Amino acid sequence: MNSFGEIFKLTSFGESHGVAIGGVIDGMPAGLEVNQQAIQHELNRRRPGQSEIVTARKESDTVKILSGIFEGKTTGTPIGFVIENNDQHSNDYENMRSLFRPSHADYTYSMKYGARDHRGGGRSSARETAARIVAGALAKQALAKYGIEVFAYTSQIGDIKLEKPYTSFTSTDVDKNVVRCPDDDTAAKMIDLISKVKASGDTVGGIITGVVRGCHVGLGDPVFGKLHARLASAMMSINAAKGFDYGMGFDGVNLLGSEVSDIFVKNSDGEVHTSTNNSGGIQGGISNGEDIYFRVAFKPVATLLRDVETIDTQGNNVILHAKGRHDPCVLPRAVPIVEAMAAMVIFDALLLNRVSRI
Amino acid sequence: MNSFGEIFKLTSFGESHGVAIGGVIDGMPAGLEVNQQAIQHELNRRRPGQSEIVTARKESDTVKILSGIFEGKTTGTPIGFVIENNDQHSNDYENMRSLFRPSHADYTYSMKYGARDHRGGGRSSARETAARIVAGALAKQALAKYGIEVFAYTSQIGDIKLEKPYTSFTSTDVDKNVVRCPDDDTAAKMIDLISKVKASGDTVGGIITGVVRGCHVGLGDPVFGKLHARLASAMMSINAAKGFDYGMGFDGVNLLGSEVSDIFVKNSDGEVHTSTNNSGGIQGGISNGEDIYFRVAFKPVATLLRDVETIDTQGNNVILHAKGRHDPCVLPRAVPIVEAMAAMVIFDALLLNRVSRI
Amino acid sequence: MNSFGEIFKLTSFGESHGVAIGGVIDGMPAGLEVNQQAIQHELNRRRPGQSEIVTARKESDTVKILSGIFEGKTTGTPIGFVIENNDQHSNDYENMRSLFRPSHADYTYSMKYGARDHRGGGRSSARETAARIVAGALAKQALAKYGIEVFAYTSQIGDIKLEKPYTSFTSTDVDKNVVRCPDDDTAAKMIDLISKVKASGDTVGGIITGVVRGCHVGLGDPVFGKLHARLASAMMSINAAKGFDYGMGFDGVNLLGSEVSDIFVKNSDGEVHTSTNNSGGIQGGISNGEDIYFRVAFKPVATLLRDVETIDTQGNNVILHAKGRHDPCVLPRAVPIVEAMAAMVIFDALLLNRVSRI
Amino acid sequence: MNSFGEIFKLTSFGESHGVAIGGVIDGMPAGLEVNQQAIQHELNRRRPGQSEIVTARKESDTVKILSGIFEGKTTGTPIGFVIENNDQHSNDYENMRSLFRPSHADYTYSMKYGARDHRGGGRSSARETAARIVAGALAKQALAKYGIEVFAYTSQIGDIKLEKPYTSFTSTDVDKNVVRCPDDDTAAKMIDLISKVKASGDTVGGIITGVVRGCHVGLGDPVFGKLHARLASAMMSINAAKGFDYGMGFDGVNLLGSEVSDIFVKNSDGEVHTSTNNSGGIQGGISNGEDIYFRVAFKPVATLLRDVETIDTQGNNVILHAKGRHDPCVLPRAVPIVEAMAAMVIFDALLLNRVSRI
Questions:
Q1: pTM summary value
Q2: Which residues have C-beta within 8 Å of that of residue B91, sequence separation ≥ 6?
Q3: CA-wise closest residue to D344 among D227, D183, D205, D187
Q4: Given an 8 Å threshold on Cβ–Cβ distance, is C67 in contact with B12?
């Protein structure tokens, strides 16, 4: 229940204010030369405190790899790793013990398990996603060997939309600014909006677009393991995600079949392509070699910097006084998480595809 | 790869024009009194030829249960079943053998497996979903024991939107008309649109809304097995699905956190509820006892009743002449499939929840 | 719970006196040319009524394949199949309904599930193994492509032991006689013993030896998925199996490490081998290229052709009067089952090994 | 591939001479009060250096739990833990880099993965089993809540056999002496034998008997998940295990069915039992409430304290000069591992059994 993947599989553990979080990556094939700095770089992209528009919490998020890599290469054995929790401030959360924050997991965890680690959300904290970043960073390095690149970017914050299509951008455009929108003008508007929302003690949501370039033909399975079903599951498992679509997605429902069919063409090299890509690079659940692109909707998160009404564990009405340091908008830090989960899905599908023919 | 579920698990098999399709349902607990007519009723809701706005193909879709039910009750052993393919007309498809239909799975299957059963889409045909209907019908019957009801309905066709919220409807409203939109006025417009699209040899997409009422608190798992991630995976595994969202979904991205927080309230019976339900009945991946609601976007399907350009397996340009009998819009027949997949997810989560406490 | 395998996976269904038994084989790669007669041949080797020393029940055990094979080749999609139950005689078993046969599964099934299909053992009947034969036969055909051969034979019945080692035999020796002991002199003694035991209304156990020749180096996983752990699980899942060992097995406990070390040698072709094979072809859970050999102990089955004391479902003492047609010794018919399960394990491990390196 | 269990699942990681070993225990239900000292106690029973008859290596084997336990109780979230490797002495193993020790995993790992961590066996070292001890200790604590006890003991070393049956002993007898044979006279002979073998630089094998007392009726699944198949897989995954049997086991093959049937009796409390227990507490794969007992055969391990011939990675003949500190007999330290694996299997089956009825 805390594992993701079929062959390339992450099992994560850890609460936000326990000793450490971490995980085990099973199924990484042997022989991959690992760039450990690149893993840390991805963690730094998710790290709190990286800019003015994200939470001011300080966590170094330093990963320590415990096994599975020997003399710089993967050995085929499981890769265990830990990230210590430095900034625990557990006492900050004592007032959370006996109340349920609205639109959080406090109530549901307590009802399911009979109790919960109330400090900072415990297991429901987005801190857990740091473990996914580690696995995703390794998946990215493996995919690079096969010429496959995964990237994501912020394409909407509140009502500020990036109008340019994904085809306008490459992975190198993502980190040009702190909101991770590859168009600087739109980014400036987004940053401005987040700053205002933050100042008012509120939060705002948005959309992240993910892209997979260079994906081989044949990844994904026909029925339940459709590549986009795997991506949907991956994306919807990210904290605050509320929606997923791919290719023409929700926008396609207004169109006619004759408007959206992707006609096959053979290019001058004899390669088969489609002249349009409404399918989003996946047909019948299997990649067709075109770019895969998808969107993930994130809600405005529930932790406000203002007082909110709620109930305590006895059902009494109480006022939750805001304190702590929170993200007014999770998207800038969620971009690398979307990338990580997508990379895990694609690499897993690539490995699974090795057993599709005798 | 052809299985769905953790405890309550369907493994399906079968091509649209092979001998039969079918499946094995493993993990159905013992002791459920089974209404076999109700299973057939659900199959009839998905069956081709049921109205003027769906394909005219004739399949009786009669399920034959081979095991796992004894003297009217489930025994705890696997339930094997088959549905014979009556209307095979395989020769109709001989022209498909050597070409790739646009926006279909023909190309990707061929590339992945080196060959394919080209007759009517083979395994990629939506005919496979009949097996899901059987498993879903059993899950529905099990859920009814726990007071949980799952239903779905057509909420958009092309640009015709049902404006009333899901709270206006119950399961008994769904089958009032052939398009399965519970509001008759909107349904009439939808039927009209589909008829026009059909007449022009084209296809149209839309949105299905799914609802789970009476869901117990505590279903779903914290991280990768979030209840909405399971639903997303289930829905995106349905043929022609392009998007999924739940609760406020994509519409929530424009709103502020302060606008969407679901405040907890205690009702007169001492039960905890939320005064609004932007969360869609799931918080932190776990059901909170409120209604679960979600949307699934379906594309206009690619099989047109007009000639289309495409390529053959050698890469030559060819014209695919329309023939056969196809759905101008898949949504009316997809409603029971959405219900079936949702029922499977919820029942599986209910069983899994039995091991959450010592 | 009714599935076996990781990649190449059989899910079986069916009770001995229901409509049919069958299964779904998922994960068979595309492109294997299938010899359907060879599948039926394996079923015939397991079939009741094949000789004087096995049960006289008549079942044609004809397999009907429903999907996954097209124009003589596997397509990569799941292979569904059924075997109808012809010789149901359900009324023969009416007296079983309310009593628990000693050393059978009647009591435990009833306690676990609250009820059971009492006819002929229902799901606990060895009839279920016919589904494994089908999957095993396909695995054998796939393994043959890789030069790997799996066979098994009866090496002990009661106290009649075959003294010659497995190295004396090949797969062609197995079916020389009805007891499936490859040495005719020993076989004659075994047949004689079984005949006497049968005449006295009793049953007798024995040992089956399994062999894998031509196994590639590298199959199996280091820790929980050791190749011999997979074989042990496979063999112990066969009805009436009570023990498993491999290589030197239980006999090795009396020996010293210096006596049993398998020294590596390089042969004239430059291939690495071991000069002895006490390891049984597996070291550290991974195949080393030598022959794999193992033993499976089978108990004398509990269904006697004489009256036995037992209790009914109310706990009253009753006498169970023998009737029906039963095997005095299951080993002759269990030989193909051991082969089938071993073939499934080895082929699955071969597929899994494709993801061991980047 | 490095996970064990269906619901209660351990994923282990770590090489013997890496930074640390550890694991993640997923599926532990919430609400279990955890005795951390008892976990450490079990680790101490497996620890090197605990007596004269085991390896003199020094490892403190101190477990550090990182998550999943809050204020003394399990929370239902995954339990991550690490055990640091203190006594690394990696240079001791430099000579192992380029050679393959006979009857070890060196050759097979290298062939499978293209390389290996050669230090002390890396992942193939029995050091990995410390992670299983942690999970097993938690399973034992959970089972105690249900009145179920798991224990194991040394029943044979070389040709010194304990003649008394398992019914003579309880869990408190196991640790009376360093060889963990509950009969002091037999234990003295075993210790003497191991001492002699050690003095000669050799190793010796033996048999461990495992017992489960108080097991509820109904654990285990009918077909592939038979309780004894799960136990077999568990036991055969332990380093140096070569064989497994349960109940009458291999000894039953010489007996007649009429001699071994376990007749049901109703005792004065109205409980159903069997008058004998040749079935070993499992019938049809499902526990019947009687004691479960089984045997595991261990080979004399291959690491001798004398020079042995072998080949290097180039295939040249070389002499491996003994050094390091090794176990002349693994059984005394394997007893807690057998217990741990059995506890994991039984607890997992107990949880799975919660979904057997509607």
A1: 0.97
A2: none
A3: D227
A4: no
